[in-house]
Amino acid sequence: MLRVLSYQIADSIDIKAFKATFTAEIYFADSEELFYRMEGDKLIYVFKYGIVCFLNHSEVEITSFIQLITPFSRHLLEERLSEEFDIETSAPKMKLGYNKIEINGSNIDTLRLIMLNVSQSVALDHYNEQTNILLEETNHHTQILERKGKLDLTGTNLKKYIGRTLNIKNRIAENLYIFDSPEETWEDENLNKLDIGLKKTFDLQARFRTIQEGLQIVKENLELFKDLLQYRNSVVLEWIVITLILVEVLNLLFEKIFH
Questions:
Q1: φ and ψ of 98, to 5 deg
Q2: Could you report the per-residue pLDDT of 198-218, keeping only the tens digit for each?
C-alpha cells in the first residue's frame, strides 16, 4: 500500500530558487512544478501554488522537507490544508474509491498523475476558502448598502478593500491553470482514463466551477462598489463647485452693496 499526502503550506513557492538549492534527482521540472524521485521509491511533488505532495514518506521526513522549503514559501498558512490518498498496486483492475485507488501495477507517470490530482483537490479547498472569505466580506458590505442606502467605507478604505480583494482574486485566477490535464494524458489512453477517473472522484470540475461562480459574483460587486465610489467623488466635486460659485456670487453682492 502506497500513501500520498499533499499539503497546502503557503500561497506560493519560489520554484526556481528552490530548484537551485535542492539537488535531489528531478524526474520532471518546469516553471510551475518540480517532481523529485528520492531514494527508496519515494516521490516529492512541489507546486508553484504553494503545495508539496509526498509519496511513501514518514512524518519525520515530511516535517523535515517542509522546514527545508519554508524559506522559499510566500505567505505561509497558519493552518495547513491536507489530503491523504492510498494506492493499492496489486489489484486485478483499476477501481477508484473515496480516498483510495486500486490499480494493477504502477509506474512513475501513473504515480505522478495521482499525486497531481490529490494536490489539485487540496488547492481547490484552499481557493474555495479564499473565495468564501471574499464572498462573506462582499455580502457584509452589500447588506449595509441595503440597510443604509450607502457603503460604510470611506474613499480610502474602500480603495484598500477593493485592492485587497483584487489581489486575492488575481492570485486565485493566476493558478487556475492547474486544472488542465497534463500533456502525457493526451498521448497515453490509460493515463487519460486514470486522469478522468481521478477528476471525477475528487469532483474537481464541479468544485472548480463553484469557485469561478463565486469569483464572478465578487467581480460584479466590486464593479458596483467602484461605481458608487466614483459617484460619491463626483457628488463631492459638484458640491465643491457649487460652493465656490456661491462664494463668488456672495463676493460680488458684497462688493455691490458696500461700494
A1: -60, -50
A2: 999 999 888 888 888 888 888
The answer to whether residue 150 scores a pLDDT higher than 80 is no
Residue length of the chain = 259
Task: Return the number of other C-beta atoms located less than 10 Å from residue 159's C-beta.
Answer: 14
pTM for this entry: 0.82
Q: Which three cell numbers stand for residue 64?
A: 523535515
Q: d(Cα 79, Cα 42) in Å, to the nearest integer?
A: 25
Axis-axis angle for helices 155-174, 108-148 (nearest 10)? 160
The sign of the dihedral angle between the CA atoms of 38, 44, 47, 52 is: negative
In a 10 Å sphere around its CB, with 0-12 CB exposed, 13-18 middle and 19+ buried, how is residue 122 labelled? buried
User: CA of 176: how far to CAs of 51, 119, 200, 208, 220, in Å?
Assistant: 14, 13, 18, 8, 19
pLDDT, position 252: 67
* Band of pLDDT at residue 245, cut at 50, 70 and 90: low
Instruction: Give CA–CA dist 96/113, Å, rounded.
Output: 14
Residue that has been written with the C-alpha cell 495547513 in this structure: 80
**How far is Cα 111 from Cα 235, in angstroms, rounded to an integer?**
61
Q: Name the band, by pLDDT with cuts 50, 70 and 90, for residue 138.
A: confident
C-alpha distances out from residue 10 to 43, 123, 196, 210, Å: 20, 10, 28, 22
